[in-house]
Amino acid sequence: MSRKKSVKLKIVDHRHCMTCGRAIPPDKKFCSEECRMKYEEARMRERRMRKMLWIIYAVMIGALLVMIMLRAMIH
Ligand SMILES: [Zn+2]
Which of 5, 30, 59, 70 is the most buried (most CB within 10 A)? Predict the structure, then answer.
């Protein structure tokens, strides 16, 4: 009975690797250095992508404003 309980606790007390989903100790986030690197890389890429999108958005709004101003100056 007590043995069963400890086994159940062990099952509850674990995590899954954030990259591949493998079961890992609760004090770790990834099963290996490779998975950690992959996760960091993906996060960095996503952050860079979001930054790029913001820059594109800002440039588009800037261009639109310039166009509106130019049009107002012409008329
Ligand atoms: Zn992994």
Answer: 30
* CA of residue 71 to ligand 1 center, whole Å: 56
Contact 19, 30 (CB under 8 A): yes
pLDDT tens digits along 29-68? 999 999 999 999 999 999 999 999 999 999 999 999 999 9
For ligand 1, the distance from its centroid to the CA atom of residue 39, given in whole angstroms, is 9
Q: CA-CA distance, 57 to 51, in Å (whole number)? A: 10
Ligand 1 centroid–CA 14 distance in Å is 14
Please tell me the distance from the alpha carbon of residue 73 to that of residue 50, in angstroms, as a whole number: 34
Rounded Cα–Cα distance for residues 40 and 58 (Å): 27
Q: Which two tokens stand for residue 74?
A: 């012409």
Tally of domains within the chain: 1
How many residues make up the chain in this entry? 75
